[in-house]
Amino acid sequence: MTSSSAADKPKPPIAVYGAMAANGVIAVAKGVAALFTGSSAMFSECIHSLVDTANEGLLLHGMKRSAHKPDQAHPFGTGNPIWDGIASMMIGLTLASVALILAYESRSLLIGEAADPLVIDSIRQLAREDADVVEAGRPLTMHLGPDEVLLNLDVRFRSGLSSETIMGVVDRLERGIRERHPEIKRIFIEAESLRREGAGAVSGTPPV
């Protein structure tokens, strides 16, 4: 083998192989930790490391394909660096778009966003339809998460009801609200009739 041919021979991508092996080991370690701890965050990190390992594999494949010599079908070779730049810009735009969407959604949840107006009206209507409820105030709601809503409802019961009956009505209202709107996890019903009797407020508890 001549010195020129030895110089033209591509060097093995040691750095890529090393990064691929390291990411693979890290992915296994994170997966084992997630299995024993049950941590969803650690499991997501395991998936992240697996994706990094797959990226190194794709990089190796691309380097191998780009090293092909010119042939009759591709007289100028198969490597065109412009596509790498275009792909990088497309990936950057995609990541930026996703980040903006997540920031918008997270901002509304972090500042205590209320439930949908249709949900609020539905809850109030459900309470008013109960035979033992005289009036229901406008429900106060707040998102605790994407699928978890807190509800505070002020209700005036029909006069003459005993405390036990009112407790039963509260339980009935809680069941009806949760059946119609499963995203409402925590319900607090304030009973005006109980306040007048000096018994305070009736608070619902989150489902077990």
From TrEMBL:
Q: Where is the Cation efflux protein transmembrane domain?
A: 19-79
Entry's Gene Ontology cellular component terms: membrane
Record Pfam families? Cation_efflux (PF01545)
Membrane-spanning segments: 85-104
Q: Which GO terms describe its molecular function?
A: monoatomic cation transmembrane transporter activity
Q: How does the protein associate with the membrane?
A: Multi-pass membrane protein
A GO BP entry is: zinc ion transport
**Protein name per its UniProtKB record:** Putative Co/Zn/Cd cation transporter
Species the sequence originates in: Thiorhodovibrio frisius
